[in-house]
Design a protein that fits this description.
It contains two helices and five strands. The protein has 119 residues and is α+β, with helices and mostly antiparallel strands. The protein has a single domain, classed as Herpes Virus-1, CATH 3.30.40. The chain is globular and about 40 Å long. The relative contact order is 0.19.
Length: 119
C-alpha cells in the first residue's frame, strides 16, 4: 500500500522535494516491534516509508529516524489524520484540501454526464 502526502502551505517548508509516495516499513512502529515495546501514535517517513512512534511515545522512534537519516518530513498514519510535520523547519504541514467532485445532470451519452475524480 502506497502512502501519499500533498501538504498545503508549501511556503512554510522548504523540504517538500523529499516527499515521495512510500510503502510502510511495518504494520506498527518498526523499532518498537523489534524490541517488544508499545507506542502512542504512528508516523511515516515520507522519504523512505520508515514507520516510527511519535514524540509522545517513550522511544520517539520517528524523530530518532529523522536524526539518523536526515529525512525531514513525516506524516501521521493514525486513522482520520492526514497532517505532516517537517523536523528541519519544526513546522506542521496541513494536508492540501481535496478537490470536491464536480457534478452535472446525468447524461447517458458516452463521455458525458456525471464527472467524478477518484481519490
Amino acid at each position: 500500500m502506497l502512502v501519499r502526502f500533498e501538504p498545503d502551505q508549501a511556503g512554510l517548508c522548504t523540504h517538500l522535494d523529499a516527499i515521495k509516495p512510500v510503502t510502510p516499513s511495518a504494520p506498527g512502529c518498526e523499532d518498537c516491534l523489534s524490541i517488544g515495546m508499545v507506542w502512542v501514535h504512528l508516523r511515516i517517513c515520507m522519504t523512505c516509508g520508515h514507520v516510527g512512534c511519535c514524540d509522545d511515545s517513550r522511544n520517539r522512534h520517528a524523530r530518532v529516524h529523522h536524526d539518523c537519516s536526515g529525512h525531514p518530513v513525516v506524516r501521521s498514519i493514525e486513522p482520520g489524520e492526514t497532517w505532516g510535520w517537517c523536523y528541519l523547519d519544526d513546522t506542521p504541514l496541513p494536508p492540501a484540501q481535496q478537490a470536491q467532485p464536480s457534478t452535472s445532470p446525468r447524461d447517458d451519452t458516452p463521455g458525458k454526464g456525471k464527472q467524478t475524480r477518484s481519490p
